[in-house]
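Pilot study result, target chain (262 residues):
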Amino acid sequence: MLHGNPTWSFLYRRFVKSLRESYRVIVPDHAGCGLSDTPSEDVYKYTLSSRVADLEALLSRVELEGPLTLVLHDWGGLIGMAYAARHPERISRLVVFNTAGFLVPRGKQLQWTLRIARDSRLAAWLIMKFNAFTRLAVRLGCRARPMPEGVRRGYTSINDSPERRRVTLRFVQDIPLSEWDPAYAAVLEAQNGLAHFAETPVLICWGERDFIFNRDFLAEWMRRFPQAEVHRFPKAGHYVTEDAFDEIIPVLKRFLGRTISN
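Predicted structure:
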């Protein structure tokens, strides 16, 4: 289970409790996120390529029996699918929440608020000084109902230092918009690798009130994976895992139960 930005493994806490009796559930924190170490940028580059390399290192060292089911949200989609493109033989199923595994869909543009966060010095200062990206995300990411205060603290309190907030900023700044951006090659690798999974069981659970990963991204997933089982949650936002957990978990259990991991 791979989280994105500005979240951490906390995103999947209820999924772990619901699935751990039947499945081995591995939920890493990306470097600088959650309870992980935050290495200096002198020794660690906070880029998509680094994240994929971290996942490769982890899964090469953890003793696993059988193939993998990837569960993906936000940046976790690109990290996971870039890994999958390199190791298609290891992937048996995909579970997709609001995310991307490809470049911004043709004819579309990056949502303007995310572009400002990516390119504006003022936005960078607000993120570093006030943890603005995380605080706004927990306010705007749940649309079916406000995120409970305790859950908001779970997401925001972890980014309690400039070092942690810089990691959040680096994720945003790494969004590739042209072939000259550092992450472009890794995203293109993920996108090209999607063809490996034309017959792979895919479950898509999508919050339709996500203004970042909007219906254009959902349409692109469906175009690339016409075999996918798709569940739309019209009232849910970007944090569909929070907004619609009670509806998603039985769907996910049925999907895992009837698709053979081989």
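One observation from the pilot: DSSP finds twelve helices and four strands in the chain. A full batch analysis is planned for the follow-on phase.
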